[in-house]
Amino acid sequence: MDFLTNINIQFYILAYLVGGIPFGLILSKLFAGVNVKEGGSKSIGATNVLRVVKEKDPALAKKLAIATILLDASKGVAVILLAKAFSLSPATQWAVGVLAVLGHCFSPFLKFEGGKGVATGLGVLAVMLPVETAIAIGVWAIMIKLTKVSSLSSLSGLAALLVSSFLIHPEIPYIKSHAPLLLIAFIVLYKHIPNIVRLFQGQEKAPV
Q: Domain range holding 127?
């Protein structure tokens, strides 16, 4: 088990475990007494927190949804900043970020189920690619204002981030590859497959 003494491996495990913390589930149970895994889309993300808790307390639902977004994003920010504090290589930092998103989407605390990875991915990319992330947030904000549909807005923001990353950074600094970013995008896209199907069927609705 010597590999467990490798600091990179330790960070990979830490990132996956931190990413897996189901803040949406914890907050909704603690403050609203409801289990988001049993309602709505059964996701632990902010959109489902809003949808499920709203049935009991609309005002509280919005507060818990905002808290869920911030805490889920903080998971991505925290593991990357910690990796930077330990002077881990850029490649390792990216791997840590991917694993944090993977942990959120396939949480070891929820039998490898989880959220859709948007907020945690946003936290990772806010540190690693701040300009592209700002563009993505802008696109998301416009789309959520126009459509009120979270999944469509998130996917639009993801598309904007990918396009802008190739335009601003034809090669990602230090690693010279978009592979980690594309992995994060693939995970988020994969978790949104049911939403994409509903979008094409015209059945995807706003949670508010």
A: 2-201
Residue by residue, DSSP assigns the chain as: -GGGGSHHHHHHHHHHHHHT--HHHHHIIIII---GGGSTT---SHHHHHHHHHTT-HHHHHHHHHHHHHHHHHHHHHHHHHHHHTT--HHHHHHHHHHHHHHHHTBTTTTTB---SHHHHHHHHHHHSHHHHHHHHHHHHHHHHHH--HHHHHHHHHHHHHHHHHHH-SS-TTT---HHHHHHHHHHHHHTHHHHHHHHHT------
The answer to whether residue 208 sits within a structural domain is no
Digit-coded pLDDT (tens) for 101-153 = 999 999 999 999 999 999 999 999 999 999 999 999 999 999 999 998 989 99
Asked if residue 70 belongs to a domain, the reply is yes
Q: pTM value?
A: 0.93
- Looking at the structure of the chain, the number of domains it has is 1
- Exposed, middle or buried, 80 (CB in 10 Å: 0-12/13-18/19+)? buried
Q: Does residue 166 lie within any of the structural domains?
A: yes
pLDDT of 4 above 90: no
Is the residue at 206 inside a domain? Answer: no
Residues 180-206 have pLDDT tens digits of 999 999 999 999 999 999 888 888 776
